[in-house]
Design brief:
The chain is built from nine helices and two strands; from the N terminus they run H-H-H-H-H-E-E-H-H-H-H. The chain is mainly alpha-helical.
């Protein structure tokens, strides 16, 4: 994981988003949040510094490739690359100001000695949920389209509480981007990533200027 390269790539992609308020959103991301350094989870995938940014780029690469292949290409025909970038790169902005780096004692099986190892605890500074929290945080600066709003809100899909599944299914039926983002998120999390950041990464997708 090249953290500096990831930051520059994220900036490059987001620079192609031409929406009122994007400058304020990027100012928040870069100067007022830990988006570039936060982990993607406490222990399940990319539990490391910069993990959230890497995960966001992995989801972007996957979703952008979906847009170029059937059956997603037809279903996503009305979504431009700005929507792909916004949905993928910002779906987990709710995880900023959410984790706190600490350490815990773990016994080294080889030496028998106890050692301090990095560890993340949850310390949510903006307790407003998950998908709905990402929508709220983005729209504090920049307006989303309905497709983007619903995709980000329901990107957890089947991991939402059972009583919300009818609502999730209705959103998925109405907005193909929501289905595609959920699948891209699952693929990135379970195929491209793990806690040790040692699974192969997908090839980088074409950026805006290379997409017809």
């Amino acid at each position: 994981m090249d953290k500096k390269q990831n930051i520059e790539r994220f900036r490059s992609i987001m620079a192609n988003v031409k929406r009122p308020g994007i400058d304020k959103l990027m100012e928040f991301i870069e100067k007022k949040s830990d988006f570039y350094t936060a982990p993607a989870s406490t222990r399940f995938h990319l539990s490391c510094e910069g993990g959230l940014l890497q995960h966001s780029l992995n989801v972007y690469d996957t979703l952008a490739q979906f847009k170029d292949a059937e059956p997603f290409r037809t279903a996503l025909a009305r979504c431009d690359m700005q929507s792909i970038a916004i949905a993928a790169l910002l779906h987990d902005i709710c995880k900023t100001m959410y984790y706190k780096a600490t350490t815990r004692n773990v016994k080294n099986e080889q030496t028998g000695q106890w050692e301090k190892v990095p560890y993340y605890n949850i310390e949510d500074q903006i307790p407003y949920g998950h998908g709905e929290k990402s929508v709220m945080m983005i729209e504090s600066y920049m307006r989303l389209t309905n497709a983007e709003r619903y995709a980000i809100r329901w990107h957890m899909g089947g991991f939402e509480p059972q009583q919300l599944q009818n609502t999730v299914n209705a959103a998925f039926s109405k907005y193909p981007l929501a289905v595609a983002l959920h699948i891209a998120d699952l693929f990135a999390t379970n195929v491209m990533e793990d806690t040790n950041d040692n699974k192969p990464q997908a090839p980088k997708s074409p950026e805006f200027e290379h997409v017809d």
